Amino acid sequence: MSEPDLNSPAGYLVVLRNRQFLALWLAQILAQLVDKVVLILLIALAVADGGNDVNTRESAIMIAMTLPAVFLGSIAGIFVDWHPKREVLILCNFLRGACIFAIPFAPRSLAVLLLLTFLISTLTNFFAPAEQSAIPLIVPKKDLLAANSLFTITEVGSLIVGFAIGAPLLAFTLSLFPEAKAYSREVLLGSLYVISGFFLFALPKDEIIQPKKVGSGIWTDLREAFQYVRHNHLIGGAMLQMILLYAVLGAMQKLSLNLAEVVTGNREEFGSFVASVGVGLVIGAFILGKFGKKFGHRPLPFIGFVGIAIGLMMYAFVTNQWVAWLIGSFIGVNGSLIVIPMRTAIQEHTPENMRGKVFGLLNNGENIAASLPLALIAISLDFLTGVFGTQNGGKQQIGFQIVLIVFSLIVFGLGSWAWKRTKKALSNAL
């Protein structure tokens, strides 16, 4: 058996000529953009009454949006394996649209908004593993890297563009239909979800669903998924590397606040540093999708972790905003060397009847990994600030530098170990 080739895309034009993939990709672009704008709308509705608990209301909406990913990701993956991906994707988009349409008719209370937020996020977490599992059904193996590159570009691009255009789009909608202020934004966003759902009717209807085993259920299938990942070192190693990457990206949200304070003196400018990482991810995804074949069998994920560790180390000593943006882009490019080949490997080498379970577990792991470092880094920064003082300038920066240096060494160590585990599995597959 030959070694799996993780870096052999056929190029963007080939996958975009695939009408079923094109429909799925357009649905992804539209749905992910709407996801970001919906969060902005829900937060705006939650704080519309004002009061002294604005921060609490904002945080409550964000928590309600996050909780389903933590608790339901794996269960959603199992459900996806039991049903045709086409039906799951269409139903999720139509139901998300219905939730948005229901907002103008629902009581204007925080509890109702939290419930609707939780429902929308739950449907999104069923949509995600179905979407990832659908790609190998409609794209040949040789084209998977290019397909995943496009999905990564739009996934990150929607994060940047969605939050950038969200507030202006909602304000423009209100100005365009002032007499429909109570429902115009909801009609727009709900309709976009429905349109995204219509794109998905182009997906194949003839998917073969493996019958459930006798005695199978959610917990039985969940245990089976854990055992599969544990014993399949190639899949487990690929998942581990992606989870580590999401831990780094989660930590970057907190580190960017401190970096903005050091570089610009204003913590509120942290968004540009987060965006620079996203820009790097898009650039790296484009390069991989277009020219990935030329990279042969180079250890791209290992190179990615080394690059991220170097970038974090450089952050510790940067004082210029432009240099900081360039380093952020450098970190993003190296992140793409991990996420695209590893996501492709999971799609290629996971049996069809296990893909939903595996991507559900991966979704769980990524969301937990993106949240956990926030607390650990915050505690470390508070502790080191206490040790070195709270003066402006040098002493406060020392604690930040120590955290970045230690974090970069941890990323290098864990990333190297995770790649070594995956590389060993690839060697055993020969």
Features:
Growth Hormone, Chain: A, globular, disordered N terminus, 14 helices, 79% helix, mainly alpha, 430 residues, 2 domains
Summed up:
By secondary structure, the protein is mainly alpha-helical. 79% of the residues lie in helices and 0% in strands.
Structure description:
The chain is mainly α. The chain has 14 helices and no strands. It has helices at about 10-15, 20-45, 55-80, 85-100, 110-140, 145-175, 185-200, 220-230, 235-265, 270-290, 300-315, 320-350, 355-390, 395-430. The chain is globular, with a radius of gyration of 22 Å. It has two domains: about 1-145 and about 155-205, Growth Hormone, Chain: A, CATH 1.20.1250.20; about 215-430, Growth Hormone, Chain: A (Up-down Bundle), CATH 1.20.1250.20.
Tally of individual helices? 14
Categorize the overall geometry.
Answer: globular
CATH architecture classification of the largest domain: Up-down Bundle
* Number of discrete domains: 2
Helix content bin: over 70%
Which structural class is indicated by helix and strand composition?
Answer: mainly alpha
Question: Nearest-angstrom radius of gyration?
Answer: 22 Å
- Under CATH at level 1, the class of the largest domain stands as Mainly Alpha
Topology:
Elements: H1 12-16, H2 19-46, H3 54-82, H4 85-102, H5 110-138, H6 144-176, H7 184-199, H8 218-231, H9 233-263, H10 270-291, H11 300-315, H12 321-349, H13 355-388, H14 394-428
